[in-house]
Design a protein that fits this description.
CATH topology of one domain: Fumarate Reductase Cytochrome B subunit
Structural class: mainly alpha
CATH class of one domain: Mainly Alpha
Largest sheet: none
Number of helices: 12
Order of helices and strands: HHHHHHHHHHHH
Radius of gyration: 23 Å
CATH superfamily of one domain: Transmembrane di-heme cytochromes, Chain C
Number of strands: 0
């Protein structure tokens, strides 16, 4: 987590400190921040640009990402509430635990299907294969390994899985920076240990890989879909204050710095 956190802050800091030399706002040009947020929402939820330009890729990518974020959310909520989060919606404790298991298994299998689809594309489509590097295969194989192990623990929960309670206790020890007892139940479950190991490897390489597109998408959309009212702050020889005062998005008079 240390490498992930500081690596993430480092990459985000570099992006934030980069000078935007030219305005590259793209059509459709939003006229207000509300419209800009609408475009961002369409990209974030529906992958609108990908849907318009590469429908076959959109099918696999959208399903995989929806399943991914559902799985992450399910892990957080399920572990915290011990699978009884649906009690707050009126279900019984046992029904809530069963619902949590069904949803978790369904999203895990959907994510597996999406990842396999994306991996097969890289082997079977010539143009995609040409631009695929070793790191692309590594990321997909690593994600597939994590998902396959997770699905095995879900599908054979009684024999190979682990219940929420010891996992929550283990996570609590980590968050509180307390040592985990060597005889802790999670350490006696080989598949869980492997699952956690590969997740940690993924987190360590995450900030330095293409997986950062999760955060990079927000930076890109802010650049190309923001409301365009003035020259870019980093544009050479432009007095941005004068341009703002002119109200036309261009320097007025002797606006050159």
């Amino acid at each position: 987590m240390v490498i992930f956190t500081f690596g993430l802050l480092y990459r985000l800091g570099r992006w934030a400190g980069s000078r935007i030399v030219h305005n590259i706002t793209l059509s459709p040009f939003p006229q207000s921040n509300t419209q800009a947020l609408g475009i961002l929402g369409a990209e974030l939820i529906f992958f609108r640009s990908l849907f318009n330009f590469d429908r076959p890729l959109w099918i696999g990518a959208w399903l995989m990402h929806i399943a991914l974020f559902s799985v992450i959310g399910g892990h957080v909520v399920g572990i915290y509430f011990l699978g009884r989060q649906f009690v707050y919606l009126g279900m019984s404790a046992s029904l809530s635990e069963n619902m949590s298991a069904v949803l978790g298994t369904s999203m895990g299998l959907l994510m597996l299907a999406g990842l396999l689809y994306l991996l097969i594309r890289r082997f079977t489509i010539a143009k995609v294969k040409e631009v695929t590097g070793p790191s692309d295969y590594l990321h997909l194989v690593l994600l597939l390994t994590i998902v396959v192990i997770g699905n095995i623990m879900r599908l054979w929960e009684h024999d190979l899985g682990i219940s929420y309670a010891p996992v929550k206790d283990y996570v609590t020890h980590l968050v509180m920076l307390q040592p985990v007892p060597m005889n802790h139940e999670v350490l006696t479950k080989p598949l869980f240990v492997l699952h956690l190991l590969f997740v940690q490897i993924l987190l360590m390489i995450f900030p330095f890989s293409k997986l950062m597109h999760v955060f990079g998408m927000f930076a890109e959309r802010w650049i190309i879909n923001r409301v365009y009212k003035e020259p870019a702050p980093g544009l050479p020889n432009v007095d941005v204050a004068a341009a703002r005062a002119a109200g036309a998005g261009l320097p007025s008079g002797d606006g050159a710095a």
